Amino acid sequence: MTLAADPTSDDGLDALTTDGAIIRIRSARPDDAVGLTDLHERAGAETLYRRFLSSGTSPIPAEVARLTRPADDRHVALVAVESGTVVGTASYEMVADQSRAEFAIFVDDRAHDRGIGTLLLEHLAVRARRQGVTDLFGEVLPQNGPMLRMARDLGRPSRTGWDQGLVEVHLDTHDDGGNAMDERDLAAARRSLHPLFAPRSVAVVGAGRGPGGIGHAVLRSIVDGGYTGRLHPINPHADQIAGLECFPSLSGAPKPVDLAVIAVPAASVLDTIKDAAVAGVRAAVILSSGFGEAGESGRDRQRELVRVARAAGLRLVGPNCLGILNNDPEVRLRAMFADAAPPGGLALASQSGAVGISVLEQAAEHGLGIASFVSLGNKADVSGNDLMAFWSDDSAVRVIALYLESLGNPRRFARVARAVGRRKPVLAVKSGRTVAGSRAGASHTAAAAAPDATIDALFEQAGVIRCDGLGDLLDTARILADQPLPRGRRIAIVGNAGGINVLCADAAEAAALELTALPDRVQADLRQAAPEAAATANPVDLGAAATPQALAAAIRAVAPAVDTVVVAFGATLASDVPGTLAAIGAAADAVAVPVAVVLLGVSDRPGALGHRRAPVYSLPDDAIRAVGHAVRYARWRATPAGVRVRFDDLDRRRARECVETELHRGGWQSSAVAAEILSCYGIRVAPTLVASSEMAAITAAEELGYPVVMKTAKAELVHKSDVGGVRLGLSDAAGVRAAYHEIEMAISDPRVLVQKQAPDGVELVAGVAHDPLFGSLVMCGLGGVHTELFGDRSLRLPPVSDRDATAMWAGLRSAPLLTGYRGTAAVDTRAVEDLLQRLGRLAEDLPEVAELDLNPVIVHADGLSVVDVKMRIAAVSSEPDASLRSLREPR
What we know:
This protein is an alpha/beta fold. It is about 35% helix and about 25% strand. It is built from 28 helices and 40 strands.
């Protein structure tokens, strides 16, 4: 079987070990024979016995020959290479049953406990899955504890059994380890970035002798910031800069140098990185421009830069960036040419330097402190995914904010963000909402999966809070950084002016927040605290003459009855503004729910009030929108992640064979081919017969049984009913005869499809669309002729969990039609969830399914009927695989 698009090419991929080092995992080649021989000959006697079940080195030549023979559809061998040395290998050999293969793993004795074997097995499983292998099995000695622990800890479904004194381990290639793999990914990324954020020593390469240059400015910034480690200027033309001893090169500086900040011309950067590799530098921040942003020649330089750095185990930030900031008092690293920012709980990553500076300035104005800041620049190596992983375990970071112009591997972003979001909120501003045009496609699903809608779906699924610009990001970060998470969506508005309260109430409705009625006892407490109150319902209007004490008492009174309190205070000439602000702050500190404050008419407005720093906003809309974001995030975080349902009735191998058979001609498939591929995933299309004449149509109708539906068989038509290509409710031969001629005349095609009429129900559309960047997406929406009219649909990236499937239909505006609307009967929503999860599995396995529309899917009381299907198949190029832990390839 040939592979249509193998994301694990022979050149391989870079990956992180558990200690943060970089290895290359690639196909074994004949020229690896020496390295593989050395790998085995370095092994101890016990290691060799565990692998070969015999003593001595005699099996090594045959094993090396096996590993270095060319890969084919029955044999794959991988090697792990670190700094030019083979440190591990993994392979499989297909058995007679082509859905099963026997695997073997061998790791250098000196590289144990670094996760190399686990990485090799993960990559091997992806190769096997792409070849149609569902079961990888290996025979292991009972005393081979490391191998048994690795199989157990992978997180993917496995089983063990005994065979002639050996433990037989079986691994399911179609499950990637889920949370266990994600945790390994986070841990490895954290370790790899430790030299970047907490270096013992920093060298600034290109540090000029006097003011005016970037290198000198960054060196001075590090000095003025109070960096706690050793600092070395690198300049071959100076002995001392800024009072520090200068060195001519990185390799000539005192060891170790953990981090190099590089500010030399683009033409000199590669030589500097090579020098850094010799010096054992572990991370570099490249401020220099002239790389990926400078055309094809710059992109070539950037790719070479990353290749050299990866081979040396060195992580890169940039190039073309502003630098980094870590306000940890034990580090105090300000390696950037931008103003300082006060310490706090926000971690910020920005692809744009100008945007990063703007956010830092605005954060300082609002009193929002910064824990860390990274200017990503061209994002050649270190990405937002890596930074989220590092910050997920940083106790100083309470909120993560990202400004993104691109997503290198969206599916990996989703996995990382989802894992991190379970610990702390991730906010993102993704530019390009108004991209002109939409994704090309002739199906409803492809039309729905427009770029911005896809980003929304990705963020929603991963729990990322998508903010509408930088102001929204900062407003939301402020409430999440210092306030507890809301328990629900009930809010109370407490203010001293009815007009402001009305604005808050309008904004709350737009944000899907609930302005809950206050209990009688609470309203009684409010009347006692403020006898002159204009309204004690919700919103609470205490009147313009409300005292600071009354405002504080009202906050305390309403807090137990709601999930968030919004205080709206408009100052007048008679107001005791200092006293009121102090009272609001003290009351906010005393309650158990989050508090947001709107201040109008207050000069020198503070950024926050109280010890718990209740955020202060200048406009009601800003405060309420931030509260809405916090409520939705809290609800997502409190909802269990869901599981991928295991289906035992899938025939992936037959589906793969069908797709590859059709790939040579590609394009829109016949209904028979589409139905066959769907059947491999347990999705049954209503029985359909093809007819090319009037009599054949009548015969088909009589075979299926009346009433029947007739439609054109022209596969590329999206809206068959719009062009006269569908006839419903045909109850006899005369009706079939008339319908056949009407369709033939309308479409100018004699081929028709005849189906048994499905039971009445709710019409949905479901499908799959494939994008080279995002991978495949699954869509669900209101179907039939209403699909475009209402645009009511939802998208998810695979894997589609049980909770994803529920959320897809439950989040539709038309969801009440499924659960029973105005006296109509509820339909089988479990069948809808089953369908969506099966489509998710198909989308994962068959990226060549470029467009798939099931429209309509008629859902009734005891199941559903798929009555029309459109499928387009197309070859796909190499693209990121979400189930591989790997670093992005240089581009």
